[in-house]
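Query structure, 150 tokens:
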């Protein structure tokens, strides 16, 4: 599983990188929004762990770009937002699974990350099924049939 860690704090990079690597993730680190956007355009990430701001720029566009390329991506946001501000983020970023404090231990962040992508890993282990029901991803979005216009 491939993970992107976006933060301008080297300590955050190091600690989260170590914990995610122990859990089987391949980790790509980025210290700028521009480089992170380039990474999500080049690869399909399973997980993005990012602070809300990097060098005073919001990082939301990185999650949205990643979601366009890989709809199954899960995003963990490191932020101190509370109450109504949190609801706003969940509406803005459909791939967002958790908002945690930047001061939380990296090991706990890695546990949340692994739990958020576990549904996708189960689907990959079992392989495609020949039944009519859609695969069960760990996503808050419901599967809806799509019809082509024409």
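Result returned for the query:
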């Amino acid at each position: 599983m491939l993970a992107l860690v976006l933060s301008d704090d080297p300590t955050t990079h190091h600690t989260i990188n170590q914990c995610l690597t122990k859990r089987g993730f391949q980790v790509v680190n980025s210290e700028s929004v521009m480089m992170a956007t380039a990474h999500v355009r080049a690869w399909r990430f399973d997980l993005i762990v990012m602070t809300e701001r990097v060098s005073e720029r919001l990082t939301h566009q990185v999650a949205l770009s990643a979601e366009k390329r890989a709809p199954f991506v899960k995003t963990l946001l490191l932020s101190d937002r509370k109450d109504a501000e949190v609801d706003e983020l969940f509406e803005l970023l459909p791939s967002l699974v958790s908002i945690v404090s930047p001061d939380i231990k990296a090991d706990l962040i890695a546990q949340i990350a692994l739990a958020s992508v576990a549904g996708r890993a189960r689907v990959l282990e079992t392989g495609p099924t020949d039944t009519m029901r859609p695969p069960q991803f760990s996503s808050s979005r419901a599967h809806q049939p799509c019809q082509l216009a024409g």
